[in-house]
Write a structure and sequence with these properties.
Two copies of one chain form a homodimer.
Chain A lengths: L4 H14 L10 H14 L2 H12 L4 E2 L10 H13 L3 E6 L2 E6 L8 H4 L2
Antiparallel strand pairs in A: 1-3, 2-3
Helix pairs in contact in A: 3-4
């Protein structure tokens, strides 16, 4: 009796697919587009550090507290703008300083990712 | 009595920072680098759909079930390789087909992001 198990597994998988696989569902296309944009906004080390510092603050974070990430002020401003455009933070200018706060529900689209 | 509140707020903020602000902590640099790489691997609509379908499956997902995302098979293979390189999925070839499964703890680095 032949013991060629690999072809047997092949045939089983092929037969199962030929008979119509019932794949599990993943994220729908529209939801995946939205979540990918959010993740892209966060997928930078400096933006992550800026965002998590702002999010960890009760109330607002003064831009004067966001200068210690080893990048220039224009770079900080660029990253803050990206975070704002993605809906992750809000900003408000009051006089000399701009104040930032995390948008409370902004990370809600990540939930399905973590719940499988 | 003047009612120019904006300069008053300016002075308060400036005085507070001059006296030494105590900013909230964000992610440390090394952790931010690691998390940014993980988020970058997920920050694509097709990769998100592939990953969430694989993660939603109990056990393994045959590559033969990952062909309905409106992209070519080489593109699917490219995205699956990116997910594997990021440590999000494992793969095993058995005969004709490759089988994918989600790495259970791969999304753990996202937890601090969601917990503030």
């Amino acid at each position: 009796m032949p013991t060629t198990t690999e072809p047997a597994i092949d045939l089983t998988a092929a037969a199962a697919c030929a008979a119509g696989c019932a794949p599990a569902e993943g994220l729908p296309a529209a939801q995946a587009e939205q979540l990918a944009a959010l993740l892209k906004a966060l997928a930078d080390p400096v933006r992550l550090r800026l965002y998590t510092r702002i999010a960890a603050t009760t109330g607002e974070t003064c831009v004067c507290d966001l200068g210690d990430f080893g990048v220039s002020q224009p770079t900080v401003s660029h990253h803050l703008r990206k975070l704002r455009e993605a809906g992750l933070i809000d900003s408000e200018r009051r006089g000399t300083w701009v104040y930032y706060s995390a948008v409370p529900t902004a990370l809600a689209p990540l939930t399905p990712l973590l719940n499988g």
